[in-house]
Design goal:
With 240 residues, the protein is α/β, with parallel strands linked by helices. The longest helix is centred in the C-terminal third of the chain and has 23 residues. It has a 7-stranded mixed sheet, with helices on both faces.
Length: 240
């Protein structure tokens, strides 16, 4: 594969796995790594369990930092002047966004023509943050998707390239969900890269409607989501 691929992401265990998987598949990847400084992040029990599980699941407990895997530009804002300068001085064939802040129009204008975003959830019903959690909160089993879509100025409104359904019966707890979402993300992106490499383009389709926008879920609701997830799993097994 001859494509030059830019990934916009943040430093987390599952993002490290995402990058490592692309490299293992011989994708030429460079990264802009958004690391916000001076912001205290409270880590709930669910977040801690998720991080601990993924570290063992993906890397057998060994730390893997993205900037040690491939060339990285580390910034504190994905829309900063440093990012604009970097994009002006470097050519890429395709860009994949995975977990960064809202990308504003000036930054979008400097990205390659083919620019995609990974959205963990059913984008046509849940835009914004924590989509899998919100679908779990609403006992909505149709929300367990990973969606690859075109980046657009309006958040999560771009054409859909592909959506993959997550098999929640592969896992037993909510804190495991992000791991299978990440594996699906890699699958969708590799499909897209192979298509662009062979044809120079991607087929996509408009969203059927504009899903409701959700902000980050309050941590006080996490326990209810964990309980609801078990309810959804029981319901899915009954249907099967």
């Amino acid at each position: 594969m001859n494509l030059k691929v830019l990934v916009l992401t943040t430093e987390t265990v599952h993002h490290s796995f995402f990058i490592q998987n692309l490299l293992d598949n011989e994708v030429n990847v460079k990264v802009i790594l958004e690391k916000k400084t001076g912001i205290f992040e409270y880590k709930s029990d669910l977040v801690l369990k998720t991080n601990d599980f993924e570290k063992e699941f993906f890397f057998r407990g060994i730390n893997h930092e993205i900037n040690k895997m491939t060339s990285c530009l580390i910034v504190d804002n994905i829309n900063s002047d440093g990012v604009h300068k970097y994009l002006g001085n470097n050519h890429f064939d395709i860009c994949i966004s995975f977990g960064v802040s809202w990308i504003k129009e000036k930054t979008l204008s400097l990205l390659p023509t083919i620019k995609l975003n990974l959205h963990g959830g059913n984008i046509q019903n849940y835009r914004g943050l924590d989509s899998h959690l919100w679908s779990t909160y609403h006992l909505d089993a149709t929300g367990f998707l990973t969606t690859l879509h075109m980046l657009s100025p309006e958040l999560d409104c771009g054409n859909i390239v592909q959506a993959g359904e997550l098999d929640i019966n592969q896992i037993s707890e909510l804190y495991m969900l992000r791991s299978i979402n990440t594996k699906m993300a890699n699958h969708l992106v590799l499909n897209a890269l192979n298509s662009v490499d062979k044809t120079g383009k991607l087929i996509s389709f408009p969203q059927s409607g504009k899903g409701r926008y959700y902000s980050a879920m309050p941590t006080i609701l996490y326990e209810r989501c964990e309980s609801n997830f078990q309810t959804i799993r029981r319901m899915s097994k009954t249907i099967d």
